Amino acid sequence: MSNHPVTDDTPAARPIALDRALASFDALWSPRVVTRVNDYDVRVAKVEGEHIWHVHDHTDEFFLVVDGELRIALREDAGERTVTLPTGSVFTVPRGTEHKPSAPSGASILMFEPSGTLSVGDRHEEVPAHVDATTGHAL
User: Fold this and answer.
1) Closest CA to 28 of 85, 114, 101, 117
2) CB 71 within 8 A of CB 83
3) Over the stretch 19-54, which tens digit does the pLDDT of each residue have?
4) Angle at the Cα of 54 (from 118 to 30), degrees rounded to 5?
5) Residue 59 near residue 68, CB atoms below 8 Å
6) DSSP string covering 88-105, please?
7) Which of 16, 32, 108 is nearest to 65 (CA)?
8) Rounded distance between C-alpha atoms, residue 102 and residue 96, angstroms
9) What span, in angstroms and rounded, lies between the C-alpha atoms of 15 and 118?
10) What is the pTM of this model?
11) CB within 8 A of 18, min separation 6: which ones?
12) Tens digits of per-residue pLDDT, 76-108?
């Protein structure tokens, strides 16, 4: 049993509808924390166009495409490749792998990563104005 009481603002107090969570903001490449699981954030984001090349040195990054299509370019030992994730697909970028998400036609995604993980990773190229370097915003 938890030592923390469940209140109206505790994530466990109510179900969270992802469509409503996504409808609550318009900013692109600016993830919102919908709930926490242990020391991990469950984040949703709207994305369109390109993110930046970046690396998470200490954690994998999990993606679930809620709507649309996400592409993730990867730089691996064997060379560069791109994975395409249609709606309903999941993919995990292994820690230490340089990657660049993009969504030419737009997408809504869910990510699962340790709380405090920066959206532009530990190492990254210059961050353009359309990309929010954040550890996630509250809904």
Assistant:
1) 101
2) yes
3) 999 999 999 999 999 999 999 999 999 999 999 899
4) 45
5) no
6) T-EEEEPTT-EEEEEEEE
7) 108
8) 19
9) 26
10) 0.84
11) 34, 44, 66, 108, 110
12) 999 999 999 999 999 999 999 999 999 999 999
